[in-house]
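G., the chain you wanted modeled:
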Amino acid sequence: MIEEKFHTIDGGVCAAKGFKASGVYCGIKKWGAPDWEESLTSGAKNDIAMIFADNVCNAVGVYTSNKVKGAPVTVTKNNLERSGGKARAVIVNSGNANTCNPDGIEKAVKMCELTAKALNIPTEQVIIGSTGVIGQIFPIEPIENAIPELTEKLSYTGNAEAATAIMTTDTVKKEYAVKFVIDGRECHLGGMAKGSGMICPNMATTLNFITTDCAVSAECLQKALSDVVKVTYNCLSVDGDQSTNDTCVIMSSGLAGNNEISAENENFGVFRDALYQVMANLTRMLAKDGEGATKLLTCEVSAAPDIDTAITIAKSVINSPLVKCAMFGADANWGRVLCAMGYANAEFDVDKADVSFASKAGKILMCKGGSGVGFSEEEAKKILSEDEIEILIDLNMGNVSAAAWGCDLTYDYVKINGDYRS
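Predicted structure as tokens:
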């Protein structure tokens, strides 16, 4: 990866040419409550967003592998199949996941129809997402009321309003964008994500919407997205619970004017690297903003024999509740790291493995060749008291590396999820 090829820019999902976005408050979570109408004028946080492309885009996605799937996942997959991988719009809400509802599919389809009518496009060119409480009746009325305002407010600078609208227990919006050059043309790629809890390293995790003006065929979009999801969102864990609504979609407008990428050539590699830059940074943001989190954790496995071994071990460590708790308490309990490595579904020689902890306060070796080494508890405490911690594992078995991202497990995580519905 040559990071110099990519320059970070503002704009999120509006960084690419041809994409507008908007976000407003519709009160979906309060629907039916006595104070619903009052809440609409109370300055509450945005809870519904729209993205709209100037032209028909190639569009692909990856979705949750949970056997219980939200209605929006099913409807989005059906729409993209019906449209032949084409889309122009995204409609997405927070506050209610529209999952495990008897009329969930009907409501999700209606949401797409309302959007399509407002934008004068075919219904199958609408991508839909929902996040929030599972198992509560999904009210279509606040969605129907909000779509005219969403449409009116669409703007080439509306990315922040949209990114705010998809937050649930998130404390900050997550968006990132880069620019790069293909065929002498400046291209742009940006995205927004949401996620703070119910995040396990298995498939796309959370809701993620990515746009680009780089011309890329649907087949190459799918290949790039699947490749990058494997080493970014799939390597993310907050709490070990996998969402029912995980969706990651990418839309390509092609307005940058490059020759369409339709084969796995050098240009494809540049595009995939740009996608990695955006998705890896969004992954870090998601991990750092985990529910109740005080620390971002990165587990990097190096000198592995192959990529799958490196990923599997890194994910096992980052997903360990005991490792997360130790990091919260700044406890240099490196044995928990080896324990999590040991029950990972990967083969390695523990007698070759080294483990270190690192942060901006320094780096300290804890384990050499599978056995503990002498270290300063005071120095280790100082290193682990920072808000970004690295768990470094050297397998000494090859030349492949991979990373996984997560956060510490805190008292506040329990508080947040003890009264989530309220």
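The CA atoms of residues 217 and 262 lie 5 Å apart.

Shout if anything looks off.
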